[in-house]
Write a structure and sequence with these properties.
With 212 residues, this protein is of the alpha/beta class. The protein is globular.
Length: 212
């Protein structure tokens, strides 16, 4: 995989937040109207904290988050319409696990999070991404950041190789996100109030998040 995003020539990050600083560097390096993919391994609860912090740390970037709360088989039209209406630079996508849960339940009769290496089929949403990768690149020139649990990343690596290996920079395993102090939190709230995000469901989390 191309590691062009993983650059350490920026400010030295606080101890314990090296992965977060790598993500900041990666997003700062992407030019406007430049297509790119990034995959971040984290829980859904940590993803919410990450989005709030990045809204503060990337004031020159317009961020949007798409929170999926049910299984889907396609994504392109939804993202294209969102991009046309919002014109953002970076889109965070959270919740694709639901689509893989539905696939595992239908194909294997149970949800185990262990079938990413199975070659007998491809989850419909990943097949969709494989087939429409050029359309995403040509018509939605932004940085996509897919947030998810480890098994979601494994599915991308093994069952969506065409999409994952194409214009992708790296996989980051995010273990910690810096807290916002009171002043930073206030500034972030003002900025978030000026931006429109896809709906957030209360207590949004996956079944195993509390175990992580």
């Amino acid at each position: 995989m191309n590691l062009e995003f993983s650059d350490w020539d920026q400010d030295v990050p606080p101890e314990g937040y090296e992965e977060y600083q790598t993500l900041i560097n990666a997003l700062n390096r992407k030019n406007q109207n430049e297509f790119g993919l990034l995959f971040v391994e984290c829980t859904s609860l940590k993803a919410e904290k990450l989005f709030a912090r990045l809204n503060y740390d990337l004031p020159d970037k317009k961020l949007e988050i798409l929170r999926l709360v049910e299984p889907i088989t396609t994504l392109y039209d939804r993202v294209l319409n969102l991009y046309i209406n919002k014109q953002f630079h970076i889109l965070f996508i959270q919740g694709l696990e639901y689509s893989l849960y539905e696939y595992e339940k239908a194909k294997f009769g149970e949800i185990t999070e262990t079938h990413s290496h199975d070659l007998s089929g491809v989850p419909p949403i990943l097949d969709h991404l494989n087939k429409l990768r050029e359309s995403f690149r040509d018509n939605i020139p932004i940085t996509f950041v897919f947030l998810g649990r480890p098994f979601l990343i494994d599915y991308f690596i093994h069952r969506a190789q065409d999409f994952f290996d194409w214009k992708s920079s790296n996989v980051l395993k995010l273990t910690s996100v810096p807290d916002l102090d009171q002043e930073e939190s206030a500034n972030c709230s003002v900025r978030k109030s000026q931006a429109s995000c896809s709906p957030l469901i209360d207590n949004y989390c996956f079944p195993c998040d509390r175990l992580k």
